[in-house]
């Protein structure tokens, strides 16, 4: 459920990454090519991006399908950014949260998206609510599995865990509580992209002109797109992509740790 994409690299118009590609996120809202669950992503969309010199991202989100928002096409044509995270949504369950349930979720400098579904939501994760501060639970932006997963990730980030560790630990915790869940998570703070492949498709492209794209599926037929194996943690910068299997929590190392034995794919 859902398709998402993140980018870090040379400054680009939003539209060149999301609208112009022949199979870009815009088109994936009604005609995804590799989506295994669901067929149409019309339950909302959002994009978050960073302006040069400002570490706090801006967001544009709507409850309806991306193709129905003519203002977004204009916005995407002229707004330029060195980093973004965007998503089109196929809701796990219908609800009244509308725009608030559309990714990306945000806190401080971070942007976050979840592609997938928590099996047995909400009951399966009820025991995990006690691990969060009461204020975090009461201030959830939406009543959705994705918003709750984001709260679990954010609590770890605020506790000082590196991005990769926060995502991997959250995936393992949620998967243990709700087996069969699909937990492709995507996180950026404007300089790097961290992601998990867990139950759904994930690809990356190291662009020849510089920059890295991480996405649910390729936005064109460039042969340099690489598929990320399932149960893998990805950490990408503008020039490098690092992959490591998601195993036990104490074996998942921070992607920024220079001693981490990660498979390095240098572009």
From TrEMBL:
Keywords: Glutamine amidotransferase, Hydrolase. InterPro entries: EgtC, EgtC-like, EgtC_Actinobacteria, Gamma-glu_amide_hydrolase, GATase_2_dom, Ntn_hydrolases_N. It comes from the Bacteria. It is an enzyme of class 3 (hydrolase). Pfam families: GATase_4 (PF13230). Residues 2-267 form the Glutamine amidotransferase type-2 domain. The keyword Hydrolase applies. It catalyses: gamma-L-glutamyl-hercynylcysteine S-oxide + H2O = S-(hercyn-2-yl)-L-cysteine S-oxide + L-glutamate. CDD domains: YafJ. Signal peptide: none annotated. Residues 247-267 are annotated as: Disordered. Pathway: Amino-acid biosynthesis; ergothioneine biosynthesis. Its EC number is 3.5.1.118. Catalyzes the hydrolysis of the gamma-glutamyl amide bond of hercynyl-gamma-L-glutamyl-L-cysteine sulfoxide to produce hercynylcysteine sulfoxide, a step in the biosynthesis pathway of ergothioneine. This is Gamma-glutamyl-hercynylcysteine sulfoxide hydrolase. It comes from Streptomyces cathayae. The gene is egtC.
